[in-house]
Each structure stands twice: as C-alpha cells, then as structure tokens.
Design a protein that fits this description.
- By secondary structure, this protein is of the alpha+beta class.
- The longest helix has 20 residues.
- The chain starts with 22 loop residues before the first helix and ends in a 14-residue tail after the last helix.
Length: 690
C-alpha cells in the first residue's frame, strides 16, 4: 500500500467537553474529536459528519458481544435511554469459524416460542443467505423490524436443516438499544453518548480506549479499504519494513519443535559480530528459559527487540554437543532489505526481485544494478510479483531510473489537495536496454505506479496478471495519544491519466476478496476473462497503444496462474511448514559435511542431488502427520524437489539464494526470457527511451 510520509503540523484548540473520569478518557475523547475534524478537512471525497459519528458508534457496538442489542430495563432507566421501537428475534449470536451461531435465546422471546435453540447455525433469514453479514450490526439491521412482523429462519441443528417462522414481539424485562441501524429512528449517534452507554455496560472488563479503537477502525473501514487506524502496539511492526531497519539483535529465526533455531545471523548485525551462527538453538534469553515452553514468534521478538545500545544475554546450544554457550549481544540497528534477490539469469539479462518500496530501496537497487552491469547485464527483469507497495517517493525514484528526459511519472489529486505532478529529474542507471516488469494480483500501489509509468511511456513490457488495483493515497497523521491514522486524501493517476483504483462500494471485506474471486471467474487462467472497462481506455504516450484504467494494470503479456505440478499432498507439506522445518533441521545436522562438499552456491546449484534428501523429507513428513501418497507425490514431484532444494540453499547460504533456485517454477520469468529473445515483442516499444 502506498504510505506517503509528510510532515503535518496542525494546531487544534479543542474545547474540553468530554469526560471527568481521568486523563485517559480525556485523551481518548480529544483523539476522537481531532480525528473527525481531520477526516472532514482532508478526506478525498465529501463526507457526511452525521454518518461518520453513526459508523463510529456502530463500530463500538460491534465489539461488545456476546452482550447483544437486547439489554435489561435497568440500563434504560439508569441512563434515561429511549429504547428502539423496532423488535428483533430475541436471541444473541456469535461468529465462529465463518458460521453464525445462536449463542443465547432470551426467556419468553419470540425465538424461544418459535423453537430456536442455542448452538443452532443460522444459514438464512427471509431468503437472505447472510453472505453480507460480517458484523453484529449487520445482523441486527437485517432482523430489527416493526412489531408483529415475521421472519423465516433456516437453521442447521446437528445434521438437520430446519425452518422456523418467528413473530417479533416485546420481551419482558428487555429492550433494544437505540443503535443507529439506518432505519431513520432516534438513535445514539454521537461518541459522547455512546461511550457513556458502553462504559456503563462494561465498567471494568473493557477499557474505553479499547472500545474507542474498535469504533475508529470500523468508521474508517466504511470510508474506504485503505484508510486505517494504527495502535501504539502496531506502529513499530508496520513502520519498520518501510524505514528499512529495526533495533534488535539481528537474527532470522524459526521455532522448530518448541526450540528457537537461528536461521541466519544477519550480515553486519550484532549477533554475527559476537559469533552466533545458523543452526544455533536458543535456550535462554536473559536467564529465562525459552526452549520447550511453547514460546511463540511474538514472545521471541518481544524479548530480542529493544532500544539501541541495550544488552541482551542469550544461552545457545550448538551442534550435537550438550554444552551451552553464553553470549552478550548489544542491540543495534538491523537493516531490512527490500531487494530479495539479484542475479544474472543468463549472459546478458539481470533479475531483481523487490518485496516493497522502502527508504533503503534505491540504495539497494543501485548497488544491485552496478553489480549486475559488472557481470554483463544489458537487459533487466524487475520482479514486482506480490509487492504490496510502500513509499510513493521511492516508486517515483525507481521509475526515474528507467525513464530518460523529463517525463511525468504519476500525479495525485484530491478534494482538499490540488494536483501534484511527479516527474523524472535525473539521469538513471537503467535507461537503456530491454526491460520486463513482472506483476500479479498481489502487486499493488507503488508497484502499480512503476508498472503504469513503464507501460504508459512504452519503456518496457509488463508481464503476468492484472495487478491489485490500488490507486488511493493515504497521509499518516499522529493522534494525541501517539497512535496513528492514515487517511485517504487523494487518488493517483498514471502518466496517460489512468486511475487504476478498483471499485470498493461493496465494502472492505468484499474489496479484499476480489483478487481471490479472479480465480473463480477464470481470470487467473485466461486473458479472455479479464473485464475491460470500455469507459476507461487510454493511449500510451509514445506508441499510442491502448491501455485500460479502472481496476489495476493489465499486462502486455498475460501469464496464467500455474496449478500444474501441485497436489493435495504437496499442499499439506506447505501448510504444515514441513519444507521449512525439515530443511532447517537437516541442514543443521549436516552443516559441516555440506559446507565441505559445496564451498559456494554455484557448486551447490549445479551438483546437489535431491533424491536422497526428498526420501528423508517424506519420512519426516509422516512423523509430522502427513501421510505419503504416491500418486499425488508423482504429480508434484518436480515442484517438491525444487522447493526442498530452495529451502536448503536458503539455510546453507542465505535467504536470497532461495529465489535463485525456486525461480525455476516462475512461469512469468520464463515467459520474460522468451520475450527478450523475440525482437517482435519489443517492436512496439520505445527502446530508445525517447
């Protein structure tokens, strides 16, 4: 996703009208007022203030379950609330593994009289299959109607499918909370009243801050799928990949059978400096036993990450000995690389795989480009498959490396933000030679800026499948308590004028499922299944080729999703992490022999035979509960052998070697190599980069 870092200084003098319950409540209330103000002032489209507040209230309500919309009369009396005049089914539900289950049937309710029971799975209400019911408010909106009206419920009870007619009536001792469900009645529709209500219902078990955060997340989700709230706990994990570093001890690890295994001591990091090695087993951290106690990844990160300059002591077991080694590691800045791999795929073609667009990306790209040019690179394949984006500025700078002269790369425009045009401005390292950009349905945002600019200026070929379709720009703003919100302020446009943002009117969940729906619609397998928007046609800027907007970048050459060579047996090996676990364990047990036999990666890549190791993989998988299936193994044999070789290369050398092996299965890369040999494929492009 595009994350644009701006410096925003806004001074707001807000009247204190909220709470008298303490500084935390005051901060939470001020945060909400400021956020509502920012959305009204900055959002890309006009917003309805009343609807914003109602969505906030609904979001707060959605997390307060299983209490439900029905509350005892005492709640209404003590808070002087007016109940809804609508009537529901008289039951409480819960969501469980994609199912809607009856959690409780209220005494003397319509549901009880009709025969509904707890644990019934509701699958249909009045011919509505409940496919669009994602939140408790969705269910209440569907079922709350006027008195004496009826609803037909279809439920699954054990193995039977049953149907019930429920006549809605009042329930003694209970009334319905006045939640804004869109029926035009008087409702609690502002934050102050809502927090007072929920604080009364949950005085101790749920904090006001937690309730408010749920409300904010839901409210932003109703605006668009990319306006987001980031809590204090989430900020570090989300920002570290884009900043290009974090502070810690500098290892890649994996938990194998309840033991923390060092996969790699990051080059130049503090762990490598003190002598930690791949294969080391971490037994203690700060004298706390961490082996054999069910430690999770988060627990390891919490113990190893920390402020620069602080110390952490670890005890490790190395090899097959029973002795332990103690290390004192001084935490330092650890680089996070955005270039996953760079190597020569043939005598004159380089390959660079980029996983995101961070603050260090351009330095990494330039380093890789110089190294590849020294090895004879004339053409480049840039792999942006599964690259979800990053900084807009980095996308602009990368595009500038490929485009000569002064050319528009991308523009942004919003309701409160005038058009801003980003252009090329310097001599790039990669302005000459053939260029192929690989994309797929998970290439988004900054990836689409680069591929859109390359396509619009006829500079290279886009190969693969239609990209995600994210053309909304967010601005990050810090809130009073240190949390952060990213508000959509603009849309971005490619040089030809395309906005490639796909529709999101059906809500965020449907929006995110869209890329998976391409599989079911056939688009993942056939170019003929791509739905071109005839109202969104544009021409490239040099060769006047037709390109399309309104839903991602459509590649110049389509490569279908390859499902051959896989099988249910292979899928089980992947899902249970067998490849990773086995490779780490096997390499650790045989490291000295392997290092002696394969002194470098090229020798390993040429000579390593996977037959014997795959036999051991199969045995290992059976112990882990994945039964061998010969026919399914034969179907996926080539993929299994390639995958385990790639995992071994990663553990024996470094993680970048994984791609050099696994790319034998990369059909888009193979198609690119064919195209680079075909001058006709590039005949319609501006190879001289006019």
């Amino acid at each position: 996703m595009i994350r644009i870092i701006f410096t925003l200084v806004i001074t707001l003098i807000l009247p204190y009208t909220l709470f008298s319950q303490g500084s935390n409540d005051r901060t939470t209330g001020i945060k909400v007022e400021r956020l509502l103000f920012l959305i009204e002032q900055m959002y890309v489209e006009d917003v309805n203030s009343a609807e914003l507040q109602e969505d906030l209230v609904l979001g707060m309500y959605n997390m307060l379950h299983p209490s439900g919309i029905y509350q005892p009369d005492s709640v209404f009396e003590n808070l002087n609330l007016s109940a809804k005049s609508t009537f529901g089914l008289g039951l409480k539900i819960k969501f469980q593994k994609g199912k809607i289950l009856v959690d409780k049937v209220l005494p003397n309710s319509s549901a009880e009289k009709a025969g509904i029971k707890a644990k019934d799975e509701i699958i249909c209400i009045d011919k509505d299959s409940l496919q669009q019911v994602y939140y408790y408010a969705d269910f209440d909106r569907l079922t709350a109607t006027k008195k004496a009206s009826k609803s037909q419920l279809t439920v699954i009870r054990e193995k039977d499918t049953l149907s019930f007619n429920v006549r809605k009536e009042a329930i003694d001792g209970y009334q319905m909370l006045p939640i804004p469900l869109g029926n035009g009645q008087n409702s609690i529709s502002n934050y102050q009243d809502a927090i007072q209500l929920f604080d009364y219902i949950y005085p101790d078990s749920v904090s006001n801050g937690t309730i408010t955060e749920h409300g904010i997340r839901y409210m932003l989700e109703q605006l668009d799928p990319h306006s987001t709230y980031i809590s204090l706990e989430e900020i570090h994990d989300m920002n570290a990949p884009l900043k290009g570093s974090f502070t810690g001890v500098g290892i890649r690890f994996q938990i194998l059978k309840d033991t923390i295994m060092v996969v790699q001591a990051i080059p130049g990091g503090p762990s490598e400096k003190v002598g930690l090695m791949a294969g080391d087993q971490i037994i203690k951290i700060q004298d706390e036993l961490v082996a054999g106690i069910g430690m999770k990844n988060k627990g390891v990160r919490d113990r190893l990450l920390g402020d620069k300059g602080t110390k952490v002591n670890v005890t490790i077991k190395r090899g097959k000995t029973n002795s332990f080694l103690d290390f004192e590691i001084i935490r330092d800045k650890i680089p996070i690389y955005s270039v996953d791999a760079s190597y020569m795929v043939n005598s004159n073609t380089g390959y660079i795989k980029l996983n995101n667009f961070s603050s260090t990306t351009m330095a990494e790209i330039r380093k890789a480009s110089f190294e590849l040019k020294d090895q004879g690179m004339e053409n480049l394949i840039l792999d942006l498959q599964n690259n979800g984006g990053g900084y807009l500025r980095t996308a602009v700078d990368l595009s500038d490396e490929f485009l000569s002269g002064t050319k528009k790369i991308v523009s942004t425009n919003g309701r409160k933000f005038p058009e801003r045009i980003y252009k090329t401005g310097k001599k790039g390292l990669l302005e000459k030679g053939k260029l192929v950009v690989l994309v797929n349905e998970s290439s988004a945002s900054a990836s689409e800026i680069v591929s859109g600019a390359i396509q619009d200026w006829d500079r290279g070929l886009i190969v693969g499948r239609r990209t995600f379709g994210k053309g909304l720009v967010q601005k990050p703003i810090e809130l009073p308590d240190g949390s952060q919100v990213r508000i959509t302020t603009s849309k971005y446009y490619t040089p030809s004028g395309r906005c490639i943002q796909k529709p999101y009117e059906d809500g965020s969940l449907a929006y995110r499922k869209e890329k998976y729906n391409r599989y079911n619609s056939g688009e993942s397998f056939s170019v003929d299944s791509i739905k071109f928007n005839s109202n969104e046609t544009f021409q490239t800027l040099i060769k006047d080729r037709t390109v399309y907007g309104g839903g991602g970048i459509i590649p110049d050459y389509f490569v279908p999703l390859d499902t051959t060579g896989t099988s249910p047996y292979f899928n089980k090996l992947i899902r249970k992490g067998i490849f990773n676990q086995f490779a780490l364990s096997w390499v650790n047990d045989n490291r000295k022999e392997l290092e002696k036999k394969y002194s470098n990666f090229d020798k390993f890549n040429d000579k390593f035979n996977t037959d014997n190791v795959v036999k051991k993989l199969i045995e290992y998988a059976e112990v882990e509960g994945v039964a061998f299936n010969e026919s399914q193994y034969e179907k996926a044999k080539s993929v299994i052998h390639t995958r385990i070789k790639a995992n071994i290369a990663q553990d024996l050398f470094d993680y970048k070697r994984f791609y050099q092996v696994i790319n034998k299965l990369n059909n888009s890369l193979e198609k690119s190599l064919e195209l680079l040999k075909d001058d006709k494929a590039f005949s319609k492009l501006a190879l001289n980069n006019q």
